[in-house]
Design brief:
- The structure holds 2 protein chains of 2 kinds.
- Chain A is of the alpha+beta class.
- Chain A folds into 2 domains: 116 residues, Jelly Rolls, CATH 2.60.120; 77 residues, Arc Repressor Mutant, subunit A.
- Chain A contains 9 helices and 11 strands.
- In chain A, the strands form 3 sheets. Chain A has a 4-stranded antiparallel beta sheet with strand order 1-8-3-6. Chain A has a 4-stranded antiparallel beta sheet with strand order 2-7-4-5. Chain A has a two-stranded antiparallel sheet with strand order 10-11.
- In chain A, a hairpin with a 2-residue loop joins strand 10 and strand 11.
- The longest helix of chain A has 27 residues.
- Chain A starts with a helix and ends with a helix.
- The longest helix of chain B is centred in the N-terminal third of the chain and has 5 residues.
- In chain B, a hairpin with a 2-residue loop joins strand 2 and strand 3.
- The mean pLDDT of chain B is 91.
- Chain B has one domain: Alpha-Beta Plaits.
- At the A-B interface, strand 9, helix 7, helix 8 and strand 11 of A face strand 5 of B.
Chain lengths: 223, 65
């Protein structure tokens, strides 16, 4: 697990800061631990802090009135979540849940505001990170609006394929369904179709991308 | 051997996963499902599909070939 200072050093939010400035921010950081499936932040609750994942994996999601879940992002170590209400005010627009045992480091909202006022480099870094997040969300809207389910599933597999040794993030078909905005059964049928196309092979608990180019072409297909 | 994950707190002991498992990998112990040691699970994920409470899950590792 990465240490607090190492995580701050590698975070794009604090890029360009001196060691002394990083140490100053480090004193504001608190640590929290969550068991698998524990809710870290809940939708519609008051935002308290910006969180950095030190170890584990967190899913950020919205829940509809009838209980359907849409995953907005999977947050991996050294990535952050809960920026929107911290920088923009208001309540949490989404929930965050530990997918495995998780350790997070947090900086309280008031402390973040003080950092932004005294360190303009951080404010500039924040705009860059937010722009990248917006780009990711635009891609999600594009996927959900214009792509068939099999294309969305193909995109998920490409995004989460590890290097053949260990990918780190393990996804259930229910997780993939929540990410792709569809039902679990449709994900199952999509996976079968991708196996028949020769793009993937399923070996017990492993989905192996056997033809990355073919999978990429399927991911790009529109409705 | 990697096996499906069971959340004992969520399991209500309905037994549907036991009925649906082709290889008889699952059993009820003290009203909660458990995995039988030594039996080969082929990761068909039918137990996950049939579980109403989400107590049993079969997460996939996604890797490049």
């Amino acid at each position: 697990m990465v240490s607090r200072l190492e995580l701050l050093k590698s975070s794009p939010y604090f890029s360009g800061l001196s060691p002394a400035e990083l140490e100053e921010i480090n004193r504001l950081v608190f640590e929290k631990r969550y068991d698998r499936e524990k809710i870290i932040i809940a939708e519609e609750e008051k935002a308290e802090a910006l969180y950095f994942v030190a170890s584990g994996v967190v899913k950020v999601f919205k829940t509809s009135a009838d209980g359907k879940e849409q995953i907005l992002a999977i947050i991996r170590p050294e990535e952050t979540f809960n920026e929107v209400p911290v920088f923009n005010g208001g309540l949490n627009p989404a929930s965050a849940q530990a997918m495995v045992p998780v350790v997070v480091y947090g900086i309280k909202r008031g402390d973040i505001e003080a950092i932004l006022r005294t360190k303009p480099q951080v404010a500039l870094n924040v705009t860059r990170v937010m722009a990248k997040r917006l780009r990711n969300l635009v891609s999600l809207v594009e996927e959900l609006s214009f792509k068939r389910v099999i294309s969305r599933v193909a995109r998920i597999l490409l995004d989460y394929a590890g290097d053949g040794i260990a990918s780190g993030t393990r996804l259930t078909q229910r997780d993939m369904a929540a990410m792709a905005g569809t039902a679990r059964e449709v994900v199952g049928r999509s996976l079968k179709a991708l196996v028949e196309d020769g793009a993937i092979r399923i070996d017990r608990h492993r989905i192996i991308v056997t033809d990355r180019d073919a999978l990429g072409k399927i991911a790009e297909q529109s409705l | 051997m990697i096996t499906p994950q069971i959340d004992r707190d969520k399991c209500d002991g309905c037994g549907l996963c036991i009925i649906i498992c082709w290889h008889h990998c699952l059993v009820l112990i003290d009203g909660v499902v458990a995995i039988v040691e030594g039996i080969d699970c082929d990761w068909c994920t039918e137990c996950e599909a049939v579980c109403v409470t989400g107590a049993i899950t079969c997460p996939f590792e996604i890797v490049l070939g």
